[in-house]
Each structure stands twice: as structure tokens, then as C-alpha cells.
Design goal:
Length: 74
């Protein structure tokens, strides 16, 4: 069974970069990390427009290792 694709829902990596105000390489890195659903057509990788618009980047720096207890001295 073929899946029907709405072309208005998918954008190129270049369009995604322009939409987010970042470089195409930044979008490419996010694609490689699996942060966006992708669709490959004719050698082009497309991203779902709504995911790009709603994407919230993770804060920079290392991930927190755990919560410190209040009032404990180290």
C-alpha cells in the first residue's frame, strides 16, 4: 500500500535552516542525531515542517548528572 504524502508538510534541509535561522550544517547534524522525522525522495532528505517549527533545542553544555540535595555540605 502506498502512503499519500502532502508536499506542503515537508521541507528541505535548506528551507528548515532558513526557517530556524541556523546553518544547513546545523540542521544536518540534528537529522543525523535523529531529532527530526525524515522522508527521502530522489536523493533529497525532507523534514516535516511542523517538527522544525516546534523544535526546542536542548540547553548547551553537559547534561545534568543528578539533583543535589538541599542543605547538604560537600
Amino acid at each position: 500500500m502506498k502512503r499519500k504524502v502532502d508536499p506542503d508538510q515537508w521541507i528541505s534541509q535548506a528551507e528548515a535552516a532558513k526557517l530556524r535561522g541556523v546553518s544547513r550544517q546545523a540542521i544536518s547534524r540534528l537529522v543525523r542525531k535523529g531529532r527530526f522525522e525524515t522522508l527521502s525522495i530522489g536523493g533529497k532528505t525532507l523534514l516535516r515542517r511542523s517538527e522544525v517549527e516546534e523544535y526546542l533545542p536542548k540547553p548547551p553544555g553537559p547534561a545534568p548528572k543528578g539533583k543535589r540535595k538541599q542543605g547538604s555540605s560537600v
